UniProtKB/TrEMBL annotation:
Secretion signal span: 1-24
Protein name per UniProt: von Willebrand factor D and EGF domain-containing protein-like
Pfam families found in the cross-reference section: EGF_2 (PF07974)
One function term, GO molecular function aspect: nodal binding
GO biological process, one term: anterior/posterior pattern specification
Lineage: Eukaryota, Metazoa, Chordata, Craniata, Vertebrata
Keywords noted in UniProt: Disulfide bond, EGF-like domain, Signal
Domain EGF-like: 41-73, 105-140, 172-204
InterPro entries in the record: Dev_Signal_Modulators (IPR050969), EGF (IPR000742), EGF_extracell (IPR013111)
Recorded GO CC terms: cell surface; extracellular region
Cystine crosslinks: C45-C55, C63-C72, C109-C119, C130-C139, C176-C186, C194-C203
Length: 210
């Protein structure tokens, strides 16, 4: 009986201090608001109050700090978990992929965004927004608007790294170590295309007419 009296006094003090987190059955009062009530030591709650909650009237639980719900079954995070995060325990959110921070309020791109890319959420999907000269999931790939032909690789915005035998902004010009003559044209590395009256690797031989 002495324990019941102490508990009544304790709950009364909590009520005066605004600490009581009770939601009486059928009440429209918001959770966490102090309500006047009479503690019933013979009260029964079914299902039982969880997470240290105390049954103060039939089917009415007094929840400990950090929990709420009819049976104190829900952990409470304040501020609320954002961006679809789940409150695991008081003040601790589990964040979905792409979000971080204590309350899932920060957007995070795995690996970061390179080359001044900006990590942002678009329709709930986290992605890097790249400047015009970069592309790729992390803005890691340079963009060459002219393209890189003949096996060339774009290594910086607008700059191609060309394989041996090719030059030009788009690796589109073949190189012949010995120049083509007599109107011949270098069409691939060290390969000349000759006019009809000439032949040879450099178009240096005149064809003999029979």
């Amino acid at each position: 009986m002495r324990v019941s009296v102490v508990l009544v006094l304790l709950l009364g003090a909590c009520t005066m201090l605004g600490l009581v987190r009770v939601r009486a059955e059928g009440s429209d009062a918001p959770r966490g608001v102090a309500l006047g009530f009479v503690f019933d030591p013979k009260a029964e709650c079914e299902p039982r109050c969880e997470h240290g909650g105390v049954c103060v009237r039939n089917n009415t639980c007094f929840c400990s700090g950090g929990y709420e719900g009819e049976t104190c079954q829900y952990a409470s995070c304040f501020p609320k978990c954002k961006n679809g995060g789940e409150c695991l325990r008081p003040g601790k959110c589990r964040c979905p992929p792409g979000f971080g921070g204590r309350y899932c309020h920060k957007v995070t791109c795995e690996g970061g965004c390179w080359n001044r890319g900006e990590c942002t959420a678009v329709n709930g999907v986290v992605k890097c927004i790249c400047p015009s000269s970069w592309t790729g999931s992390r803005c890691e790939q340079a963009f060459c608007p002219q393209g890189c032909r003949n096996g060339g690789v774009c290594v910086a915005p607008g700059i191609c790294n060309c394989p041996d035998g090719w030059v030009g902004g788009a690796c589109h010009t073949a190189v012949c170590s010995l120049p083509c003559v007599n109107g011949g044209k270098c069409v691939s590395p060290n390969t000349c295309r000759c006019r009809s009256s000439f032949s040879g690797s450099r178009c240096h031989e005149r064809k003999t007419l029979h």
